[in-house]
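Reading a protein record of the kind used here takes only a little practice. The record below shows the convention in full.

——
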Amino acid sequence: MGNVDCIGCHQLGQEATRTIPAQFGEFKTGAEAWMRRIASGQTGEFMVNRIAGQLAGVPFQYFGDWTDRVAKGELPKSKPQRPQGVERNLVVTSWEWGTEKQFTHDLISSDRRYPTVNSYGPLYGSAEYSSDEIPILDPKTHKVTFFKMPVADPNTPESFGPPFHASAVAKPTQPSAYWGDEKIWSQRANNHNGMFDKSGRVWFAAAVRGIENPAFCKKGSDHPSAKVFPLDRSGRQVSMLDPKTMKYSFIDTCFGTHHPQFGYDADNTLWLSGTGPVAGWVNTNVWDETGDAAKAQGWAPFVLDTNGNGKVDEWAEPDQPADAGKDKRIAGSGPYAVMPHPTDGSVWYTLNVFAGTPGFLRFDPKTKLSEFYAIPKEGIGVRGGDIDKNGVLWGSGSNGTLVSFDRRKCKGPLNGPNATGNHCPEGFAYYKYPGPAFEGFENGSAEASYYTWVDQHNTVGLGENVPISTANLNDGFAALKDGQMVMLRIPYPLGFFAKGLDGRIDDPNAGWKGRGLWSTNGDRTPWLKEGGKGSKPRAVQIQVRPDPLAH
């Protein structure tokens, strides 16, 4: 149920999920109906393997019991609060974009370092593995156009999900109640996210070829990073679109990519997540000067300074026992969110969201050493996260809370044999998301937030340095303002399920009208929204007025 399983892809609770489609026929129990439901469409095989295999079928019973109780007339035990205070001051502008068959994973509006970049300009969507056609919305004219993302290698295979572990297939396991046996998803670029640079260009985490890396990435190469840690395969790489010319460039990286974020250095370094066992970066200044992808990129493994001498030495591998004289390399599912520090040059990640011990990892580009801080047991895990101007980390916790981590509060050594993850519990704090809790877990919330972003520049209107989380079961976003949660809700019946968010200042002198939060409905199945079949993803702008009647 949490933010790395069902609610990582779907909102639950609207009419389409609390009832069973009549097209599926009749079933003796709700559990049987759910077995049929999740076998539907191109992701059916993946969902069945997850629930029936890895989770031993237990969720079928819970989901089935839920829909059976709803069918008998049971109502929720709690009601959402009506908006209070500043929550009443929202202005929400919404546009349909994308198509009725493909989902839009994310959008980008500006450079998060310089939020006036691309003021009043187009928004660029990312269709991930549903399509290579990315939607582009002009909010001034309300016109939606599409750009088909090419690949550098014409033999790049069709892709149906995250690199190396596809979560969809070409032929549905069972017919969809909405699209039958139709193949509705197909792409090769697999664009996950975009990010503006200060020149107004858009950089994407997107595939440019198949998964086999070129020779310069591998063992025997003279590339400085390959000499230290060669890489044989990567899924997504990097691409760049210049909106002024619509020229699309390929930057072939040896490491995989997922979320891009620019650092605050003079080289305009682009840092990526989804890089597996390494930190990966592209020096965009070098790329602009040379067009040489190999020369512009670098990577380094995640190594803890367990021998405490302040430099990278020979290390013990993740599957080897600790050695007092060596450092220790760490592994797992790798970086998910990437967060360059605004002032000290370090780069932070949320780590091991899907496999391994989840937590926050700090990478120092100068020493190439890492620090790891595991999420304490009560936090369970973390998904998307961001960093504020003070270097405090904020993440979407798996226990229904907004998790924060402040390295400055650590009392013990940050390197050495005991600094392996559980050495700074005092750095963590938790802030409960709005909404009811699961029965028996009243200290948390059933909210399963996907991603957290920090509004460093007051682009929304709540002030600077405000962390804002996607509120995936609350139809909007939850912001932490002065220690209190503020709900930014998209009004019923639109429904809203975001996988990311962004802020932009169109005019710093225009008050609330010149600022706004931007996002898109990122549910993988737009047809499950209240609008039903034919509904398209929606881009939204949220603005906060000084009072409900301001205009």
